[in-house]
Fold:
Amino acid sequence: MKNLRVSSSPHITSPATTQRIMLDVIIALCPAVLAMVLLYGFYPLFLTVLSVSSAVFCEWVFNIITKRTQTTRDLSAVVTGIILALNLPPVVPFYVPIVGAAFAIIVVKMLFGGIGRNFANPAITARIFLMLAWTGVMTQFVLPVDLSDGANLFAYFRQGVEISLPDAITTATPLQGVKEAISSGTDPSAGLSALDMFLGRIGGSAGEVSTLAVLIGGVYLAVRRVIDVKIPVLYIGSTALFTAIFFADSGYVGEYVWTYLLGGGLMFGAFFMATDYATSPKTPVAVVIYGLGLGFLTVVIRKYGTMNEGVSFAILLMNIVTPLLEKIKRKPFGTPHKDVKELAAAVRAKFAKKQTAVEEGGERVE
Amino acid sequence: MKKARPNRELKMDVRGKSKIVANGILSSNPVFRLVLGMCPTLAISTSAFNGLGMGVAATVVLVCSNALVSLLRKVIPDKVRIPAYVLIIATFVTLVEMLLRKFVPALYDALGIYLPLIVVNCIILARAEAFASTNKVGDSVLDGLGMGLGFTLALVLLGVIREFLGSGTFFVGSFGEAEFGLTLGSLPDYSMSVFVLPAGGFLTLGLVMAAINALSDKAAAKRDAKHEEEGKMIDERVREHVEGELAALQSAEAEGAGASEADAAVRNGGDGAGEDEK
Structure:
């Protein structure tokens, strides 16, 4: 009798813990971090360390000040820090990731109640905040360095506190070229190589440039069932679809589609940020609308907006409407059917018909 | 005896009047507590000087309109009171607008559309409706002053924060020929421009409001704890007093009983009844 344990439900629990899930996300981010180091040297890695430390430190201090139970061990702050750093341009002053991570954790996450209660993805909101705060710094990108010379590993450390980089090392991102092509009506893929964009040998945000590395991490997450694979698939698919629709009369539909899919932060956003548990919908209908909305907004902002990139704004906007989307097609169990009166009338009419048929004495074949 | 009474009344009055003013600044601050006048608050608090200008302009209009509405409170028919208030407010706004245009053109330009919009500022309309239309002139002026000061303080507080973070300066502005304000070294190069954008306005307002709520919650908790403590002390004292009284009563009774017992013992010559009672 001693072995009998009495407990209340639930009796069947999943072995997945927040810590384990976050560890999976960190593992999935490793290829992107590796690609970042291989492309830009150690400076962005240094920024990542700063970002993660700032995020964890802020969460720890906030929990102490507000006398809440310590939550830093669930690793979610680490994930936010890494994702934010991968979202930044490879060469930004050192204070940018520190302030960004502090904003993400304190304002977006902890002030709204901590993990699971944030209304928007902390990393994406912090990125937008930084974009508005230091627009100049956040829109200058550098070309990948040649790592055959070992000294280049430490390139960019000298520029670490500069507000504006020398013109010699800044570069245009592919999406900038596409934006110019939209207004001039030329071929958007001129001067771009699909292989370079796939491997990441282009200008762009530190961890987003290498589509290959992001895809490896994304597939890992999908295989481990950490993320709902419908969201990235719908997002990427709808981006392709809406690009084709919006650029149907441009004469370069194919070029626009592949530059839009491989350029910017679409892949990274689709796999790592749009799938955040607290801010993405769960019900099937809501997921479909969420994915389509993400793709639609991304293409609209990229084509008509003043900025080259629209992924972060698209994700933030869809995060905000997620609670509304989840209300669609969700009725409490036992709610009567909307057309229940019509249904009842139809049934009654049917029975009445049967009755008259019986009364008329007609032959009935059962 | 007769001389002391008006003196005491005056004292009470001063306390009451200062309460009217303090009410607008603290316990029902129009921006942080009543959350009124959000449009000018968010749009104008991009710098401390703009905030101060807007606050002072609104305060002047508020005091004057409160006074006039209060004077006319028995004349204005109930059905047309809102148009009447708007007319009164618009008169003063026009005056303030002309004055600013003449003497502080830089501020006039900075305030832009929000200066004429003081006419429909809900703080001013709300005070006319909620306070001035039912109170005496003096009280109404003080209420306008308190509310105006509360609005000004809130705008300046938000303005200082947003200007420092968003432009890296402190209280930069110009009055006539005089220019003042601090530019803090190379800080403007590092400033976060988001704080002078509307997004930064909402962010700053939210954070300041949260901080004020947290502080006032803490103060309220402290006050409650103090009250509880005092209540306990009073309870204790009451209990002690009651117990003392009871003890006194009992001892008196016991004495009385003892006395009667002794009497009885003396009378009966036995001890059974006395032991039972013990």
Observations:
- The interface with chain B takes residues 95, 99, 107, 111, 129, 132-135, 163 of chain A (CB under 8 Å).
